[in-house]
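Query structure, 346 tokens:
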């Protein structure tokens, strides 16, 4: 029996890569239709802005267009296409949705459960990409790579960066605090080991496996991590308990002259409190990859702060991320077709 599959990708999660992976995993048992959305060249939408799409966030696509693209398909493979309750009512043939992201925030999960639609995702799809990026971000911040680069672009030779009061620290001489020990946090710790630094891990929901702890890696509570670390790197999930937890009190507990790195999610951080900690000189610098509002407003003060290194939420952008997501989605579709349980049910 041939199963109809609608593949709605974009200019990062390329639909043809999903198609190739599906055909390798499922052979001729699938008939596919491909569509490409314009993200990231065009911004995503949020459900609170659109009537009938409440609760959905980080999606792209007009509901009528998406419904037409899915049509009579039994299976939808997507990255950003939304599925609201009202859209599902118009798609009676839809039985399986494979979302190539860590969380299915573009899907109304309550409606999917009520209709018996199987939803799967790809947690950790970009863990290695973000972990590698985090190491690069730490080095760019602490070793004055960006400061030197920016100055040379303007024709200024920053020989003063060799001054002892301007020079950076080596990772082997630092205590690095890693908040969050999920797929990404654990990968960051593995990479940091090569630099021979002291590593503190804080995660109230995860016990670091005994084999991951030794004389260089210890699990502590968040307060101890903040107080003892020369650099804090954030890898927690956004929940009602973690939203804004890096606030004025948290930054005050950090060591004077410490650095802060966020390659996780913007809502974890009170950016006004961070700006105050930087302006007061309590923190030496910060590297920010994610923000409370994206794209960042042009007049946002931290955009021009001399102690801040910035990138536009690109830590997970690697071809390996796309390839891994496509392979994992194809396996989930194969398991659905063969009547096997999903590997990553939502």
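Result returned for the query:
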């Amino acid at each position: 029996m041939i199963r109809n599959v609608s593949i709605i990708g974009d200019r990062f999660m390329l639909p043809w890569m999903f198609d190739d992976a599906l055909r390798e995993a499922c052979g001729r048992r699938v008939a596919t239709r491909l569509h490409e959305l314009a993200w990231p060249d065009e911004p995503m939408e949020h459900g609170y802005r659109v009537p009938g799409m409440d609760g959905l966030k980080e999606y792209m696509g007009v509901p009528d267009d998406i419904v037409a693209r899915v049509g009579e398909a039994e299976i939808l493979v997507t990255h950003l296409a939304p599925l609201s309750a009202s859209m599902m009512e118009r798609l009676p043939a839809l039985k399986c949705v494979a979302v190539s992201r860590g969380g299915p925030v573009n899907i109304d999960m309550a409606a999917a459960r009520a209709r018996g639609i199987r939803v799967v995702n790809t947690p950790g799809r970009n863990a290695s990409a973000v972990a590698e990026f985090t190491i690069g971000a730490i080095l760019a911040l602490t070793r004055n790579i960006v400061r030197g680069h920016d100055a040379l672009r303007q024709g200024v030779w920053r020989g003063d960066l060799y001054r002892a009061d301007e020079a950076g620290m080596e990772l082997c001489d630092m205590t690095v605090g890693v908040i969050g020990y999920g797929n990404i946090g654990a990968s960051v710790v593995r990479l940091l080991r090569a630099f021979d630094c002291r590593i503190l891990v804080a995660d109230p929901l995860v016990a670091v496996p005994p084999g991951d702890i030794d004389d260089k890696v210890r699990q502590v509570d968040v307060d101890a991590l903040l107080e003892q670390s020369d650099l804090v790197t954030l890898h927690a999930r956004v929940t009602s308990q973690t939203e804004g937890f890096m606030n004025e009190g948290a930054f005050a507990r950090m060591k004077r002259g410490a650095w802060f790195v966020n390659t996780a999610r913007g809502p974890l951080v009170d950016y006004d409190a961070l700006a105050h900690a930087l302006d007061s000189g309590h923190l030496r610098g910060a590297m920010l990859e994610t923000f409370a509002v994206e794209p960042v407003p042009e007049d946002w003060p931290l955009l021009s702060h001399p102690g801040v290194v910035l990138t536009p939420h690109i830590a997970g952008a690697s071809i390996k991320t796309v390839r891994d997501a496509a392979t994992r989605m194809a396996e989930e579709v194969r398991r659905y077709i063969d009547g096997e349980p999903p590997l990553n049910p939502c």
